[in-house]
């Protein structure tokens, strides 16, 4: 008795209004793709190429900050790095953060 019934107003625009609400969300995803996802994928691809090109004699830095020279490259995703004279450690290839100096391939050095 004391309250009067409230009536909702009809929404105008129909399907166009609903679709216009998704446009900002789509733009946000597009911007995130070009600013975050795509550069990260390019960086990962460059890192994979660097790891695949590792060879004996390369001087590398691991993610732990150790600097050493590659003495042996194994096929099972592992390398042997010499940190000091007669101090060799086995390292997973993907933990190599940077190659400081590359060695020339044997074929190019002989010519």
UniProtKB/TrEMBL annotation:
The keyword Cell membrane applies. It is found in: Cell membrane. SMART domains: YajC. It comes from the Bacteria. The keyword Nuclease does not apply. Keywords: Cell membrane, Membrane, Protein transport, Translocation, Transmembrane, Transmembrane helix, Transport. GO terms for cellular component: plasma membrane. It is a single-pass membrane protein. The chain crosses the membrane at residues 6-35. GO terms for biological process: protein transport. NCBIfam families: yajC. PANTHER family: SEC TRANSLOCON ACCESSORY COMPLEX SUBUNIT YAJC. Belongs to the YajC family. Part of the SecDF-YidC-YajC translocase complex. The SecDF-YidC-YajC translocase forms a supercomplex with SecYEG, called the holo-translocon (HTL). The SecYEG-SecDF-YajC-YidC holo-translocon (HTL) protein secretase/insertase is a supercomplex required for protein secretion, insertion of proteins into membranes, and assembly of membrane protein complexes. While the SecYEG complex is essential for assembly of a number of proteins and complexes, the SecDF-YajC-YidC subcomplex facilitates these functions. This is Sec translocon accessory complex subunit YajC. It comes from Halovulum marinum.
């Amino acid at each position: 008795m004391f309250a009067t019934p409230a009536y909702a107003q009809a929404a105008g625009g129909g399907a166009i209004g609903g679709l216009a609400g998704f446009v900002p969300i789509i733009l946000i995803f597009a911007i995130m793709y070009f600013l975050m996802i795509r550069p990260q994928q390019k960086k990962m691809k460059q890192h994979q190429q660097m790891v695949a090109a590792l060879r004996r004699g390369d001087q590398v830095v691991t993610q732990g900050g150790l600097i050493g020279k590659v003495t042996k490259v194994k096929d099972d995703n592992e390398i042997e790095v010499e940190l000091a004279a007669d101090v060799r450690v086995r390292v997973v290839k993907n933990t190599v953060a940077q190659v400081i100096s590359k060695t020339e391939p044997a074929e190019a050095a002989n010519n």
